[in-house]
Specification:
Blueprint: H1 17-63, H2 72-86, H3 90-100, E1 109-113, H4 118-129, E2 133-138, H5 146-158, E3 162-165, H6 171-180, E4 185-188, H7 202-222, E5 228-234, H8 258-277, E6 281-286, E7 289-290, H9 299-308, E8 312-317, E9 325-326, E10 329-330, H10 331-343, E11 361-366, E12 372-373, H11 374-385, E13 390-395, H12 410-416, H13 424-438, H14 444-456
Parallel strand pairs: 1-2, 1-4, 2-3, 4-5, 5-6, 6-11, 7-10, 8-13
Antiparallel strand pairs: 9-12
């Protein structure tokens, strides 16, 4: 018997299409709501994280100095932080004012750029000692060991000299300093130093020695009153000049290195700002400065280190096998020259960026007038260190170094009594005594130095 289903009977399958569509719609709504909730949570989390990050940046900027280095991104970040946060505190402004206030009648208020550098630290201490107000600024770059700069900073702080950590390319920071203090003088010593390093990082020289100088002059020209400016040029501007001794009237249009070219550019820039804006500007051409707290990239410094560590040293000779000689100038003599230049600097004649009359424009050699061969330098160090140098005599590479320097300082003597008094043997003895003390070298060296000092006394 066959089974025949009844048409329209209860045994047919139920219609579930409406139920399925409803479940799909509810699932879609649940997913949509979850997505919206997740997006809202993400936005809230992002905003909270950003707020916390800003608070932390603000806290650490106020309590810790910004890190420095050669990296341009780091410098840009530091400039932003210094402009946005670093100079906004009442305590910071109080330190700036206190450090800049002179303690003697008619004393100067001097902004010293490159204040924790070799020459900058010595000049800052000398000015403070005689009662001038001194404010330092330095970016603590890592061209050489920053710990030495930190040690100099501590020395300055001990004598109540405050150092602002910032870059001379930071216009906002410089402007703020001039808003706080009516500086009477600027001693501009900040620069990218060294001849050979220019072959590795040329842009650092342009950034510091050219752009930085222009930025400083731009701020100074707009100040009211305009400060008188004394700044560091270099003996390297004489370049391939063969006339000796080097005089300020000699040619300086044949630089042998990028460093020299940037310093020569600085002299031309100084002329421009003097002519257009009435800024009083004095350039000082330093000749191979040495002494305690010196720069580790200088030959006398790393010769001392290598001789003590029994390492070989490279002693250069010219392509014609002649000895290389330098007009080594002791730091105390250089400081006297810088202070003399400041004391005789006339006031700028401009106001608010407008020239009111002719202004002073000068350039001077600051040297020792007695060139000494590098070979003799090594022999003096050998005697002071009681150690024989392992010399490796090689030809001078074509990296921009010149074979001979010799300063004629008669112009500086005439105008502010500059007269160097320290010979190389005496100056190196003082340097070595500082070196073994600073680096904690207890050995025959200290005994030899103390003995020679007592004999002189």
């Amino acid at each position: 018997m066959q089974y025949h289903p009844m048409i329209g009977g209860s045994s047919s399958q139920p219609d579930t299409s409406k139920t399925t569509k409803l479940e799909r719609y509810n699932s879609y709504i649940r997913r949509l709501n979850s997505t919206k909730l997740l997006q809202a949570s993400s936005k809230l989390l992002f905003r909270v994280t950003l707020l916390v990050a800003l608070v932390l940046i603000f806290f650490f900027t106020l309590n810790y100095p910004p890190l420095s280095g050669d990296n341009h991104h780091i410098h840009a970040t530091n400039n932003f932080l210094s402009s946005a946060f670093y100079g906004n505190g009442a305590t910071w402004e109080k330190q700036v004012r206190h450090s800049s206030t002179p303690r003697r009648p008619n004393g100067f208020s001097v902004l010293v750029t490159g204040a924790v550098g070799f020459v900058g630290s010595h000049c800052s201490l000398a000015l403070k000692k005689r009662g001038d107000g001194v404010l330092g600024i330095d970016n603590f770059n890592s061209y050489y060991d920053p710990s030495l700069k930190r040690a100099r900073q501590k020395l300055l702080k001990k004598h109540e000299i405050f150092t602002v950590e910032g870059d001379i390319n930071d216009t906002e920071l410089l402007t703020k300093l001039f808003d706080i203090v009516p500086f009477s003088h600027i001693l501009h010593l900040a620069a990218q130093a060294g001849v050979r390093y220019a072959m590795q990082n040329p842009l650092s020289y342009v950034n510091s020695n050219v752009a930085g100088f222009v930025n400083l002059l731009e701020v100074a020209k707009s100040a009211d009153p305009q400060p008188a400016i004394v700044w560091a040029s270099s003996s390297s501007v004489y370049g391939l000049n063969s006339e000796v001794p080097f005089s300020e009237t000699d040619r300086t249009d044949q630089p042998a290195s990028l460093y020299a070219a940037t310093k020569k550019a600085g002299e031309e820039i100084a002329h421009t700002y003097n002519h257009i804006y009435g800024l009083s500007l004095t350039g000082l051409r330093f000749f191979t400065v040495y002494g305690p707290w010196g720069r580790p990239d200088m030959a006398y410094f790393f010769f001392t280190k290598d001789i003590l560590q029994s390492k070989s040293i490279n002693v250069y000779v010219t392509q014609e096998d002649k000895e290389v000689a330098r007009d080594f100038t002791y730091i105390d003599d250089i400081v006297k020259g810088c202070v003399g230049a400041l004391d005789t600097a006339e006031k700028s004649t401009g106001s608010g960026g407008k020239k009111r009359g002719a202004a002073q424009l000068r350039v001077y050699n600051l040297g020792n007038t007695s060139p000494v061969t590098v070979g003799k330098l090594v022999r003096i160090l050998e005697s002071l260190l009681s150690a024989k140098a392992k010399k490796h005599v090689i030809k001078m590479p074509r990296n921009g170094d010149v074979p001979f320097t010799h300063a004629n300082v008669s112009l500086a003597y005439r105008d502010f009594g500059y007269k160097p008094t320290t010979d190389l043997a005496t100056g190196l003895r003082k340097f070595v005594k500082w070196y073994v003390s600073y680096y904690g070298i207890e050995s025959r060296v200290k005994k030899e130095i103390d003995a020679s000092t007592n004999e002189e006394a």
